[in-house]
User: What shape does this take?
Amino acid sequence: MNATERDTASFSDWMGHIQHRTETALAAVLPDAALAPQRLHDAMRYAVLGGGKRVRPLLAHAAGELAGAAPERLDRVACAVELIHAYSLVHDDMPCMDDDVLRRGKPTVHVEYDEATALLVGDALQTLAFQVLTDTPLADDPVAQLAMIGLLAQASGSRGMAGGQAIDLAAVGRQLSRAELEFMHIHKTGALIRAAVLLGARTGNSLADADLQRLDHYAKVVGLLFQVVDDILDAEADTATLGKTAGKDADHDKPTYVSLLGLADARRLAADMLADARDALAPFGARAARLGALADYIVHRSF
Assistant: This one.
């Protein structure tokens, strides 16, 4: 699909194209299962390939297209972010965390293999993500590429996703305020979504600071929006629809937007966040059409 075709494709066609492109790129960067240690490499591919909506790669590509980025460079960014996301799911599902047995409609990694292998899968996927960001030029200025690596590192660590998970574990059995809940999810879910948008944008032509701030605001809102909708789906959808165990948050007495606000107000909050995200994109006009459509998709997804 060339640039003209991408511009005229329907959103669903574009989304399917990027999802397929990301799957192909991930299959290429992951070690072949025939290479030693075979069991670890097989488990890494099991954890990453053949499932997931690839929301973060979609956001990276949409932001990169807005900035005129080369698709080949965006593939690397999309893979790096998705590898971090996949590692977080593997560790999140382990008995010492959420102790889940189902992910993306199939047994979780520690169930299919074993706990030690699952731990190593997460470790290996995390390090592979940074290798993907360093082994080929992603920006014309090496200093800019170094900053991109730092951005993903912060989004993944104690001041990002890992820190949010720590807050989440400490919050079990407690009722958080809305501010506390947002602080947790800005880190746990939002940090990596924000990184996907900003890394995609930074892979392209240099944007004005004001434009980067608009994209950053969009990304922060969409990160929280994703979690609000996730909480709604966890309360309403069944396990077969979700591809993971439904109702786990309520069963584990974890704070959610639904437990705090109720379903009706959680839905209203999602609608308000969607409007906020669209407002942030308004100055970009048609250039941000994919990002706007992705915000709609996040709100209206059913699984």
Observations:
- The chain has a mean pLDDT of 92.
- The longest strand covers residues 102-103.
- The beta strands are 102-103, 106-107.
- The two ends are 27 Å apart (CA to CA).
